[in-house]
Fold this protein.
Amino acid sequence: MDTDNENLDEIIIKKLWKSRKTILEILESRGYIIPPNDNLSYEEFLDWVGVDGEKIIRNAMKLTYQKKDEKIMVYWPIETNLGTNVKIIYNEMVETNTKKVIIIINTKVTPQSNKFIRDIAKIGYVIDIYTLTETQFNITKHRLVPEHTVCSVSEKKKLLADYSIVSGQLPQIRSHDPMVRHLGAKKGQVLKIIRDSDTQPGFKTISYRIVV
């Protein structure tokens, strides 16, 4: 292997490691239990992937985690775009009774696959798409991003009762907002946002947004 290819391989492997690390953090923020041994340092990741080709590495990176009765799988397909391969992933979802999947792609989703993803969402199969670039960092670690949490059903009910309002009167946040995607929040759920006060140092302000 020449030097250029070696450097390219190192770049790809480091991107895959960063992507895996970010995805584990996303899953943990969604309440999935991540065994400590799954959080690999870059050196541990290198030892794990060895000298196998990129396709083999990506296949080996597939993750499966559970919380209560909910299971999620994560894929890093070798294909540049998400096209007909999404149907292969969907078939595995059906076979393993997995209703949620995250797919990390290199570039884009074809229009046909986008339609397919929307169609299967209607019957309860949810596929979240991230690009490899998007998963190179955890947005919650940026100093300007305040703390976000998803309110439980009971918390939402209490919030509405306390303010004598209905859901439609809450300020809105779009479903494609990066923090909504990070937390896996769905339409109708409410996010609690905690910020440092601009006027009272040392104090916090709390606001709520409903996902639309």
Remarks:
- The chain has seven helices and eight strands.
